[in-house]
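Re: the 331-residue chain
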Amino acid sequence: MNHAASGKLRSVVLGLGSYLPKRIVSNADLEKSLETTDEWIVQRTGIRQRHVAAEDEPTSRLGLYAAQAALADARLKASDLDLVIVATSTPDFTFPAVATQIQAGLGMTNGAAFDVQAVCSGFVFALATADKFLTSGSHRRALVIGAETFSRLLDWTDRTTCVLFGDGAAALILEAQPAEEGTARDRGVLTSHLRSDGRHREKLYVDGGPSTTRTTGHLRMAGREVFRHAVGMVTDVVTQAFEATGTSAADLDWFVPHQANRRIIDASAEKLGIAPGKVVVTVDLHGNTSAASIPLALAVARGDGRIKHGDLVMIEAMGGGFTWASALIRW
């Protein structure tokens, strides 16, 4: 059957851009103010450094820089877009949405712009949402951004959490294109699987908000509990993606997981039977940048020549909520 002729659409990647704040905070820098060591942090997390946004760099600015880079990469103008979705847990304001601020920053007055909140899984949730808009035929091109300033949420006296996170942003541009075959050989987003379970709130959350404390609050985490759930949850949705597309770990060119903890990444890849050489790891350089982590990792791997046209790329994440998600993309 000719799916292109029958009108089936795929959301194909046209461009990719990223931005990291200039300031880098190393583990050695943290040793000066915390009772911790570089060795302890690296052994338990794999993190060696993280980027921290400047005072004049709110989340929308990081996202705008990433969006501009993605547009340049795709050789498009802002007016070529009709949808902007930003995944973030660290908006500039309670409202308006970061997406509308980036829309204005780009000089874009058409289309729709809104935020998605699924914490570290946010980028996959945003990508899946954009894919539904594009493949329904209602919109043609979407800008999907993961942007975070998690440094603003941290209790810098809590050595169990403040060493883990960093700031950054990255963006993908997707375009609805006719599917060539309607199979896993097509370019574009092939499948996405989103899950949530709100019973786990107290394991990973921020202890503030406009409707409760009327403050921003700080990030709180039961690290062992999160680790205990993470590997099973992410392998579950990755396996579902394989089943939905008739593919397997052997078919993957690249596995690009959420960059939270090197031990979670390694354990997930091992459980799924994914060769270590196919796993993209940037947690050592960026720390956990929440919704920005997957697109930042994609930008690194595309930038250094690993991810190429036609490659099969699996992304997955788990975040507070709990939320967890996967998506399979033919680049």
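The longest helix spans residues 223-245.
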